[in-house]
Amino acid sequence: MKNKLVKPLETSFQHGHTYILGFGGRNTVVECDYMVLMKGDTMLKRENISDKLADVIGNRIIHNELKSAEIITETQIAQEWNISRSPVRDALHILTKKWLLEKSSKGQYMVPVMNTDYVENYYDAMSMFYQYSLARAAKFITDEDSAFFLSLVEKIQKSIGYGDIDIYIQETGKFGRKVLQTARNPIIERSASELIPTSQRFQFATYEIDPLYPEKGFKHLWECYECLSRRDSANAAKSMGFLANVSKEILVNHLKTKDKM
Q: For residue 241, how many other CB atoms are within 10 A of its CB?
């Protein structure tokens, strides 16, 4: 693979080349079959660039780098990445479907305000989805499913020991998706899956308030797994409710205290 220096922010869409865009530093051209956009340490391949850009922006929202109520514009992102507005528009639309952005009547995109009502409404919806799904998953779970759940729970436990909140959020997200898949209701799975990124945003916010939050919630997550393995539908649903309440109570109490200040 052959590299050479190019001018800052120079781009090309020629077939068979990759152009890496540097911002304030050295820029290189790498010969291969797809385009790469690079900002800092972040790269985006040309294939499905809207999806990749949505992942990058979504990750910044989840990690509170883009703040509650912050406005995001197509022009801002297009200039930041030195790309056209079309893939940016698609990326922002994807994030709206995932509930990480809201679009106003004026066409502006905004990070949803994390207030008490928003958090309580979210947890009410997710508790309804997941208590139903866990109860149903307990009826359909196979030995293979149970082994997969156990592997996830073990990874989550290790992430708590390492103090790695990113791995914790990633693996609990996989646990939630697996529950939805095992429940075998595609309508509920689709609706609840769209809310998982918001769940990850709230998890990170909860961790910033109380770093012991993952440890506090883990016993309920373990109970969820045990109830699933025993095919105990009623208690699987109850354990999920207890798990959701750990994050909800920390977050809501913090927001209410903040409102009084």
A: 15
48-113 CATH, one of 1.20.1560.10, 1.10.132.30, 3.20.20.450, 1.10.10.10: 1.10.10.10
Burial category of 69 from C-beta neighbours within 10 Å (exposed 0-12, middle 13-18, buried 19 and up): exposed
Q: What is the pLDDT of residue 49?
A: 86
* CATH match of 116-260 with 1.10.560.10: no
Query: Concatenated DSSP letters for the chain?
Result: --EEE--TT-----TT-EEPPPSSS--EEE-SSS-EEEETTEEEESTTHHHHHHHHHHHHHHTTSSPTT-EE-HHHHHHHHT--HHHHHHHHHHHHHTTS-EE-TTS-EEPPP--HHHHHHHHHHHHHHHHHHHHHHHHH--HHHHHHHHHHHHHHHHHHHHT-HHHHHHHHHHHHHHHHHHHT-HHHHHHHHTTHHHHHHHHHHHHHH-TTHHHHHHHHHHHHHHHHHTT-HHHHHHHHHHHHHHHHHHHHHHHHHHHH-
pTM comes to: 0.80
Residue 260 has a pLDDT of: 82
Where in the chain are the domains? Answer: 1-47, 48-113, 116-260
Summarize pLDDT for 219-259 with one digit per residue, the tens.
999 999 999 999 999 999 999 999 999 999 999 999 999 88
Give residue-wise pLDDT tens across range 8-62: 333 333 333 333 333 333 333 323 333 445 555 454 454 578 999 999 999 999 9
Token pair in block for residue 218: 């883990």
